C-alpha cells in the first residue's frame, strides 16, 4: 500500500446507485468516523483473491477493476467500480476468502472499515441497503452470463462501452468521451473474448461510425446506435 498518492484521482464524486450515494449525511458521517482514509497509486492491488481479511473499503475517488483468474491463469474482469462503491463485503460477511482481486486503474482513495458486521448491527437501514445492493449485483452477474451466451463479441464490447459511457462519459466534440483505464487485454477479460476478437470488434464499431478510439480512451459518436448494436 502506498502511504502517499502522487497523482490526483480522476473520478471524485459518488456514482448514483452506489453504496455511499445511498447513505444519508448522518450515515455517511458515521461510516467515515468508524473507518480511516487509505490511498493507493495506479496499478496497486487493494485486495487479493484468496486472502482472508476482515475489512471493507468504500471508494471515495478513482476507479478499480475487480477480477479473478481461471485455472489456466487467464484474467477475467468481473466489474469496474468507481466512487461510492463498496468492496470486500462478501468476505467480511461470510468469513470466506476474498473471491476476487481489486486493482487500482487510477489513483484511488477510500474509507477502510474493520468490523463491518458490528457497524451494520448498529445501522439497520444500511444493512437493508446492503442486501438490496448485493441482490442487484447478483442480477447484474446473471445478465452478463446471458450476454456471453446470446451476444457475439462485438455486441458484448458495445454493451461494455455503453456502460462506461453512461457511467463515466463526458461531452466532447459532439460525442461522449470515455477515458478508458482498461487495456485491450483487460477489456477482453471483461467481455469474455480474446484480445484479437476485441480489437476486431472495436474496428467494426469504428467502421460503423459509432466510436473513435485512442490510447486508453473512446469517443462515442452515436450512443443510440451503440445501444442498438449492443442489443
UniProtKB/TrEMBL annotation:
InterPro entries reported for this sequence: cNMP-bd_CS (IPR018488), cNMP-bd_dom (IPR000595), cNMP-bd_dom_sf (IPR018490), Env_Response_Regulators (IPR050397), HTH_CRP (IPR012318), RmlC-like_jellyroll (IPR014710), WH-like_DNA-bd_sf (IPR036388), WH_DNA-bd_sf (IPR036390)
Annotated ranges, domain Cyclic nucleotide-binding: 19-113
Keywords, comma-separated and alphabetical: DNA-binding, Transcription, Transcription regulation
Domain HTH crp-type, first and last residues per copy: 151-224
Gene3D superfamilies: Jelly Rolls, Winged helix-like DNA-binding domain superfamily/Winged helix DNA-binding domain
A cellular component annotation (GO) from this entry: cytosol
Any one Pfam family match given in the protein's UniProt record, by short name: cNMP_binding
Stored SUPFAM superfamilies: cAMP-binding domain-like, Winged helix' DNA-binding domain
Protein name: Crp/Fnr family transcriptional regulator
Protein species of origin: Planobispora rosea
Amino acid at each position: 500500500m502506498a502511504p502517499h498518492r502522487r497523482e490526483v484521482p480522476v473520478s471524485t464524486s459518488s456514482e448514483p446507485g452506489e453504496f455511499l450515494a445511498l447513505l444519508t449525511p448522518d450515515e455517511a458521517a458515521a461510516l467515515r468516523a468508524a473507518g480511516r482514509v487509505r490511498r493507493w497509486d495506479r496499478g496497486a492491488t487493494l485486495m487479493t483473491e484468496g486472502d482472508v481479511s476482515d475489512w471493507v473499503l468504500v471508494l471515495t475517488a478513482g476507479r478499480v477493476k475487480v477480477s479473478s483468474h481461471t485455472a489456466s491463469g487467464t484474467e477475467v474482469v468481473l466489474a469496474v467500480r468507481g466512487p461510492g462503491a463498496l468492496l470486500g463485503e462478501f468476505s467480511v460477511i461470510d468469513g470466506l476468502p476474498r473471491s476476487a482481486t481489486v486493482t487500482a486503474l487510477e489513483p484511488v482513495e477510500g474509507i477502510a472499515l474493520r468490523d463491518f458486521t458490528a457497524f451494520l448491527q448498529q445501522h439497520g437501514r444500511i444493512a437493508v441497503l446492503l442486501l438490496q445492493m448485493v441482490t442487484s449485483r447478483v442480477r447484474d452477474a446473471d445478465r452478463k452470463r446471458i450476454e456471453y451466451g446470446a451476444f457475439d463479441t462485438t455486441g458484448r464490447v458495445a454493451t461494455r462501452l455503453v456502460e462506461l459511457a453512461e457511467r463515466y462519459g463526458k461531452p466532447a466534440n459532439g460525442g461522449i468521451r470515455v477515458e478508458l483505464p482498461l487495456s485491450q487485454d483487460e477489456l477482453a477479460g471483461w467481455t469474455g473474448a480474446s484480445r484479437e476478437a476485441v480489437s476486431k470488434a472495436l474496428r467494426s464499431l469504428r467502421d460503423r461510425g459509432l466510436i473513435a478510439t485512442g490510447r486508453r480512451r473512446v469517443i462515442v459518436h452515436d450512443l443510440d446506435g451503440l445501444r442498438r448494436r449492443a442489443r
